[in-house]
Write a structure and sequence with these properties.
FAD/NAD(P)-binding domain; nine-stranded mixed sheet
Length: about 375
């Protein structure tokens, strides 16, 4: 019998995690990633500890990277009014620069073939996939789409969300700042978006914010926007006044789309951000990407171990697993975003939480999952 083969397009958290898991189960994997490792990515760089049991089962010990252990949350409204909360499950402050490179090395060690080329075509014919990269053809039983928030492949596959213009862009940079506590993730509103701060194992503070294009377009660059808009929030003003940027230039992504995405397109199983985004203020996107990889792997393994299953069964199983785990969390994120981006509702919600602090843990719980076990 021919050895099963799966192609993964995209080498971020979801793609690399799926590759490691599949390889450890004896399935041949070819992963395509257009960028060389290591590299920075626009990301909040807060990883919920819900993923640790699953990673332990794969032999992945993230503590080797010496991440910061985060157990406190701080939130400020536009006016600078602050509320604090314990994070019961907590998270890790860990850079994508080192985390992705760590997973890349783990995937190589597990036996994954990684090709640093951009995939230009994915075709499904006669129960097989044909993937084209640099005019070379590769064939597989299944394809996992892990190509992130927005890709040329989304256009090739004619996915519905790609047809809609998005009003959001995301910006990231690292800053030197001795005062930001290592156990704290802070979220700060500003007029047109919100900004997250958390320390990483690189001993820099990751600054990542999401902004509406309408609030950004009249400014020449991110520095001008930061000074004119972000620093109107007293807490952000305090941080930027005392900190020093590490990057020569901020990283940015335009057209960040939070519309509902199809989980399966032309039989490609989407994982990570390609499957759907939770709003960054929920601080759970990295964990969701990793969890989605696990769900896809389990669905694929069922196909190879249960002879009665066909491709349609695999797709239905994955769709059901994804929706059961993430639909409510994404819905909660959308509601939370609408509240926090409305100045009046944001101030009212802060006053309410100030009077009834027990509400805050329930809000956090609604956007986070439970520990993920193998």
């Amino acid at each position: 019998m021919k050895k099963p083969r799966i192609i993964i397009i995209g080498g971020g958290l979801a793609g690399l995690t799926a590759a490691i898991d599949l390889c450890k189960r004896g399935i041949e994997v070819i992963l395509f990633e257009k960028e060389e490792y290591p590299h920075h990515k626009v990301c909040g760089e807060y990883l919920s500890t819900e993923v640790l049991p699953y990673y332990d089962s794969l032999g992945i010990d993230l503590h080797e990277l010496n991440p910061y252990k985060i157990n406190q949350l701080e939130y400020s409204s536009n006016s600078g009014k602050v509320i604090h909360c314990d994070l019961k499950m907590g998270g890790l402050g860990i850079s994508r620069f080192n985390l992705d490179h760590f997973l890349f090395r783990s995937a190589i060690k597990a036996g994954c073939t990684i090709i640093n080329q951009q995939v230009t075509e994915v075709n499904f014919e006669k129960e097989k996939f044909k993937v084209i990269a640099k005019e070379q053809k590769f064939y597989s039983d299944f394809v996992l789409g892990a190509f992130g928030k927005r890709s040329n492949l989304d256009k090739k596959l004619e996915r519905n969300f790609i047809k809609n213009q998005s009003g959001w862009l995301a910006i990231k940079a690292h800053y030197k700042d001795a005062d930001h506590p290592g156990n704290l993730v802070s979220l700060h509103n500003f007029n047109g978006g919100y900004c997250g701060l958390s320390r990483t194992e690189m001993n820099t503070v990751n600054v990542c914010y999401l902004a509406t294009y309408s609030s950004f377009k009249k400014y020449k660059n991110t520095e001008a926007y930061k000074k004119a808009v972000l620093m109107k929030n007293p807490r952000l003003n305090e941080f930027f006044e005392r900190s020093e940027p590490v990057f020569q230039k901020d990283l940015s992504i335009a057209q960040v789309n939070f519309d509902k995405k199809s989980l399966i397109e032309n039989h490609v199983l989407m994982i990570g951000d390609a499957a759907g985004l939770i709003h960054p203020l929920c601080g759970n996107g990295m964990a969701m990407a990793i969890h989605s990889a696990k769900l896809a792997v389990e669905s694929l393994v069922n196909f190879y171990t249960r002879k009665e299953l066909n491709r349609q069964n695999v797709e239905n199983i994955y769709r059901e697993k994804w929706q059961n785990n993430f639909n409510n969390r994404i819905r909660s994120g959308r509601v939370l975003q609408k509240i926090l981006l409305n100045n009046t509702l944001s101030e009212l919600s802060q006053n309410l939480i100030g009077k009834f602090p027990g509400i805050m843990p329930h809000i956090i719980k609604s956007t986070h999952g439970k520990p993920i076990y193998a």
